[in-house]
Amino acid sequence: MNQKEKDLYYAVLSFLKSVRKAGKTTDVEWKAYQEKLQKIAPSPDMGKAADMWTMDNLDQFSPDNNQLPPLNDMDYVANVSPKFASQLMEAMYYGMLNLTQANLISDEIQDADPEMVSTASLEELLVKLWIGNAKSYRKVVAN
Q: Which of 1, 31, 2 is nearest to 15 (CA)?
């Protein structure tokens, strides 16, 4: 996996967590976040895309404390890797992935040989799916 993509994923997730916890962000914090994205993104376009994705997430997505949607088989995911099950739920809670993508990961885990599934490989899949979400914003950046 591309380390820059992983760093970008966690930078975005971390920013979302802090903004959601505080309930707001300041211009200074946003500017620092944008500068951080530009430093760690695999490309300038990807940094801008992640920035736009974040804006949309903050504007249109609202974490729901009451209930996360049920996954196809969360128990199975948790048995394979409790750490990853937690990462997956966090990704859904903050809108990094949608339910369809989370179920895709759940299905992939169930179809795989349990001996071959690692928390690292699952984390890689999580990051790749989010990068795919953010990349859709690169088209917007380019136009």
A: 31
Structure tokens, 55: 């804006």
- Which tens digit of pLDDT belongs to each residue from 110-127? 888 777 778 888 889 899
Residue positions counted in the chain: 143
**DSSP letter (8 states) at residue 58:** H
pTM (2 d.p.): 0.88
The C-alpha atoms of residue 127 and residue 96 are separated, in whole angstroms, by 9
- DSSP secondary structure string, 75-128? HHHHHH-HHHHHHHHHHHHTTSS-HHHHHHHHHHHHHS-GGG--HHHHHHHHHH
Q: What percent of the chain has pLDDT over 90?
A: 52
Contacts of residue 91, defined as CB under 8 A and 6 or more positions apart, other chains included, come to: 13, 97, 102, 126, 130
